[in-house]
């Protein structure tokens, strides 16, 4: 039995003070992480609105734009916040019910946004006649969503009576822990998001302005004379790929 010791919250508990994270260190980093998460959502929305034509639900590239905003908000920001809820020092003492409800609400909101992101990208692919699973990002992303769904479903409901939790508690917690480990290690959400941006098809990327291309070509020819020809050839290839879409009015 551990002796009662004074904690950083000013109360007495069986938890030693050495195991309590100082609030003056934790709170600024929490605010920084929250600000970075909000900036991720804002910048992704601005990128989709300003550079990719905005949002719609009509099978065009504007429908695809819902995919990055939903995945960034759900898989990165909300799911990350749900994971960190139990790291807050205020949750280490007192009733656990408010923190469980907050954790469940954040996880459910993240799950809903992830499903909407999948529906958006699958709907866009079906409307354009594009295969749904054509890249490593597609398979890893779908696996992450399936594991995420299993994690949500395997955990016993936190509001059930303790007598009803006894039989499935061990199996549920085991599945929850294993799937959570897979999500955090093998299928890391930030890696999937970065890989998804890198794997955007060339027909989905807006054509760069002509002056930017010419400036890049001049810089390449200035420092590497042979590289200028390659950049011009790449520009011609991009224009040839984008020309049919521009004629159809699918890209603006």
TrEMBL record:
Homodimer. Keywords: Electron transport, Endosome, Glycoprotein, Heme, Iron, Lysosome, Membrane, Metal-binding, Oxidoreductase, Translocase, Transmembrane, Transmembrane helix, Transport. Its EC number is 7.2.1.3. It is found in: Late endosome membrane; Lysosome membrane. Signal peptide: none annotated. GO terms for molecular function: metal ion binding; transmembrane ascorbate ferrireductase activity. Transmembrane reductase that uses ascorbate as an electron donor in the cytoplasm and transfers electrons across membranes to reduce iron cations Fe(3+) into Fe(2+) in the lumen of the late endosome and lysosome. Reduced iron can then be extruded from the late endosome and lysosome to the cytoplasm by divalent metal-specific transporters. It is therefore most probably involved in endosomal and lysosomal cellular iron homeostasis. The chain crosses the membrane at residues 26-48, 69-89, 101-124, 136-154. GO terms for cellular component: late endosome membrane; lysosomal membrane. Its cofactor is heme b. This is Lysosomal membrane ascorbate-dependent ferrireductase CYB561A3. It comes from Chrysemys picta bellii. Residues 32-151 form the Cytochrome b561 domain. It catalyses: Fe(3+)(out) + L-ascorbate(in) = monodehydro-L-ascorbate radical(in) + Fe(2+)(out) + H(+). It is a multi-pass membrane protein. InterPro entries: CYB561/CYBRD1-like, Cyt_b561/ferric_Rdtase_TM.
């Amino acid at each position: 039995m551990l002796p009662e010791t004074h904690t950083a919250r000013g109360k007495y508990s069986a938890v030693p003070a050495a195991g309590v994270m100082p609030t003056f260190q934790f709170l600024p980093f929490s605010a920084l992480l929250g600000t970075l998460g909000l900036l991720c959502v804002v910048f992704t929305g601005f990128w989709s609105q300003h550079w990719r034509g905005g949002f719609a639900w009509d099978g065009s590239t504007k429908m695809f734009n819902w995919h990055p905003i939903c995945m960034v908000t759900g898989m990165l920001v909300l799911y990350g916040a749900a994971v960190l809820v139990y790291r807050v020092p205020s949750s280490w003492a007192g009733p656990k019910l408010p923190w469980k409800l907050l954790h469940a609400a954040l996880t459910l909101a993240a799950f809903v946004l992830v499903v909407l992101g999948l529906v958006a990208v699958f709907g866009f692919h079906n409307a354009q006649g594009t295969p749904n699973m054509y890249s490593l990002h597609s398979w890893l992303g779908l696996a992450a969503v399936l594991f995420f769904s299993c994690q949500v479903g395997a955990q016993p409901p936190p509001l059930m009576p303790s007598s009803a939790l006894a039989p499935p508690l061990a199996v549920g917690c085991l599945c929850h822990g294993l799937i959570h480990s897979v999500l955090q290690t093998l299928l890391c959400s930030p890696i999937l998001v970065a890989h998804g941006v890198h794997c955007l098809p060339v027909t989905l990327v807006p054509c760069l302005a002509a002056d930017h291309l010419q400036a890049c070509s001049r810089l390449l020819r200035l420092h590497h004379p042979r590289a200028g020809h390659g950049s011009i050839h790449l520009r011609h290839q991009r224009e040839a790929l984008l020309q049919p879409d521009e004629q159809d009015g699918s890209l603006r």
